[in-house]
User: Fold these one by one.
Assistant:
Number 1:
Amino acid sequence: MNAGLWSVEGSRIDGKRVFGPRILNISNPFNGETVGAVSMISTDDVSRALRIAWTYRSTLTRAERGEVLFRAASELSNNLEEASLLISLESGLSKRDTRHEVSRVIDVLTMAASEVLQDDGTCQAGDVGRSPKRRRTITQREPLLGVIAAITPFNHPMNQVAHKVIPAIATNNRIVLKPSEKAPLSALYFADLLYRAGLPPAMFQVVVGNPRAIVAQFADSQFVSLLTFTGSVGVGKQIAGLAIYKRLILELGGNDPLIVMDDADVDRAAALAAHGAYANSGQRCTAVKRIMVHRSLASRFTDALAANTRRWVCGNPLADDTDVGTVIDTAAAERIELAVNDAVGRGARVVLGHRREGALYSPTILANVCSTMPLVTEETFGPVAPVITFNCIEEAIAIANGTPFGLSSGICSNRLDYIDRFMHELQVGSINVWDVPGYRTERTPFGGIKDSGLGHKEGVLEAMKAYTNIKTLSLPWGVS
C-alpha cells in the first residue's frame, strides 16, 4: 500500500465498497497532511448492512474459522510495517506504539484461532443433589440469534476493532462495526485482510457515517442482539438508556493508579510510572492517570521519574527514535494543556514538560497534586504523570477508591500484607503487582466496575462467552 496514493475509501457492506454524498478527510495529527478520505454513508445503507448480517447464517466449521484467523494472522505478520504505518499516519501515534498495537492484533488472531478449535461445552452428571437421577447434561455454545453491533474509539484504531471482531468470528456470529470517524482507515484495512483470509463478507461489515445516527440505529434495531461499545462514560450511559432489552458490553474508561509503597525500589517504580503514563501518548483507558507515592519516597521518586522522563523522545511519530507521538488532534492536546494549567492554578507544580505544539504534548510531570483536582478526578487522556502523596496504606486505598472509575491498578511493593490488602480492598477489575495497570495477555479477563463499564470485551475467552447463547441437553445415562 502506498500511503501517498490512497483514494476515497467506502464502507464495507457485504464485501463491497459503498459510498455516500459526504467525504470525510483523514489528516495526520502531526503535520495536518491528508492521509486518506472516507465516504460517509446514509442511514439507509447502515440499515441494509444490519439486514444483510441478520439474514446471513454462517455454516463455517470450527476448523474453517480457525483457518481464516490463522491466515489473517500470517498475512498481518508479513505486513506488520505497512499496518503500523497506516495506524501512525491516521492517529499520530509513534511507530514504536503502533508496531506494538499490530503485534497485539496478531496475538488476538492466533489465540482466538487456537481457542475456536477447543470444545467449549460441558458435561455434568445428574445423580447429584437431593433428587438424583441417572441422567447427564451436556451444554453447547451457539452464536447469537441477532447481530453484534460494535462501536470503537480512536486510541487503538486496529486493536480495539480486533478485540470486538475476532471473538465474533470465532463464535460464528455476524458483526457490524462503526469505527471512530477520527481513525477509520485501520478498521477498513482490517476488514479487507479478513476477507482475503476467506471470511464471508456478511459476517463482518464496516459502516462509516454520522456517529450519532449510527449509534441510534444500533440501539434501536430489531436485528441487533448485542451492542458492544468502548468510549466515554457519557456516551456509554446514553447507549445503555437507548438499547432497551439488548445485551451490552461497555468499556467506559479508567482512572488507574500506580501505588508506590514505602518499601518500593524507587528507580523500578519510576520506570513503570513513565511507561504507564506516556505509552500510546497516554491515550489508554489503562494508562497510569494517578501516581500515588508514599510520602517518605516522594522526593526521591519524583527525581527518578524526571530522569526517566527526559529519555522519552516526543516528536515525529514516524521517526525511529520517537517514543511519544501526538494525541489524536490539536483540540485534544489543548484540553490536556488546559487541565494541567487548571491544576497549576490549584497549587500543583510542573516538574517537567507541559509543552504543546499543535497535537504534540510533551510528557509532563506534576508534583503537589491533590486527589480532588479535576486533573485526577476526571480522565486526562494524554501523557501526564501527576504525583499524589499519601501517608499510610489506609489513605492510599481511600484515594485509589475515591473515583467513579474502577478499571485497573498497579502496585509497587514486595510486602505480602500490603498486596493482600490491595487485592481485597481496591475497587477495580485488575491489580498488577510490579507492573503497569494495563498489563494483561490477550487471554486475560479484562474489564472494570463502577463507571468503568459493564461486562468483559477482553480477553478472547471472556468475549467469546459473552457473544454466545448456552443450550443444555439432558438425556438418560447409565442403568436405571
Number 2:
Amino acid sequence: MAASGEWWDEEDGRRLPAGEVHAWEPGTNQTVCGLSLHRSRLTRLAGVEWRDVLPESGGAADAVRRVCPCCAATAGRPDPDARRTWRRVNPRP
C-alpha cells in the first residue's frame, strides 16, 4: 500500500500510513487506481497489509484520513454508496 504520509508506532516499532492511502502492488511504480508514486509523492509501505488500513479494521488506520475509493473497490472493499445498475442474468458460455 502507499500513503501520502507516515508515522512511527512506538509500540510495534514500525512505520504506518497517514493521510490518504492507496492500494499498491510491489514491483510497480503506480497505484492500483493509476497514480504515479513519484509524481503524487506517495510513500511505499510494503510491510502494511491493505486490510489493516481500512478504518473498520482499527489496526494501522489510526492516522488514515481518506481511503481512495477506486483502490478500495479494486482491493476488496466496495464503496457502500455504489449500487449495481445492471446484472447479467444469462451469461454467454
Number 3:
Amino acid sequence: MTRSRALDPEVCGVTAAVAVIDGKWKTALLWQLEAGPQRPGALRRALPGLSEKVLTQALREMESDGLVHREVHDVLPLRTEYSLTPFGRDLSEALAPLAAWGHRRLDMLAGRSAAAGASPVA
C-alpha cells in the first residue's frame, strides 16, 4: 500500500488508517511510545532487528503523519526524544480492540495446534 493512499479523500477510512501504520515497525514503535518519551537508542534496544536507518525513516514518516513529536534538546551531545502526539495516542487507543482481537486469534491458533498435536487417548 502506498502512503499516498492515506491522503486520498475517496479511500475507505480503514485503508487510510492502515496506510499510516503500514510496515513492519510502526505498530511496534507506537506500542513502545505509549510508555512515554523515548530516545532512538532505547527504541532500537527494545526492538531487536530494527536498523538505525529503518528506525529513522519510520519515525520521520510517523512525525510527518502527526503521530509522533520529535524534540531535540539543545545539549552536547544533542539529545533527541520521541513521544506520541495526542493524534498518535488516539490511533493507539483505536488500535487497542484490534490488538485484543489479534491476541484472541493467536490463542485460538495455539489451541488448534495443541489439539492437533495431542495424542488420542485409548
